[in-house]
Amino acid sequence: MLSDPLTLELVPLLLVLAHHGKYTGETGLWAYYEICSFLNAGATENWDVAQEVPYAYQGNEWVGYDNVGSFKMKIVTTLIEGSFSQ
Fold it and tell me: N or C: which end of the chain has fewer CB within 10 A?
């Protein structure tokens, strides 16, 4: 949850879990299609530069996730760091 939707200041993750997913019923874990529904319902999508991942928010609700861009960044980082080298 956002502590203040106007500043986009996030409440520490250990203290607050996301609401349960509409379809999965899971608290703190949404399926990608639930995130897509959240975005289609008017949530604002933003990019976390430090973590190189997108997140979306609407009111005091927010969700972080991966998309094609963040997966590409992870692959490039892994290849550059040599994690898959033999």
Answer: C
Residue 32: pLDDT over 80: yes
Measure the N-to-C terminal CA separation of the chain; round to a whole number of Å: 42
2 vs 23, more confident: 23
Do residues 10 and 18 make contact, with C-beta atoms less than 8 angstroms apart?
A: no
Residue 86 in domain: no
- Closest C-alpha to 5, from 80, 70, 83, 58: 58
73 alpha carbon, distance to own chain's centre: 15
Any idea what the CATH number is for the domain that residue 18 is in? 3.10.50.10
Q: What is the pTM of this model?
A: 0.70
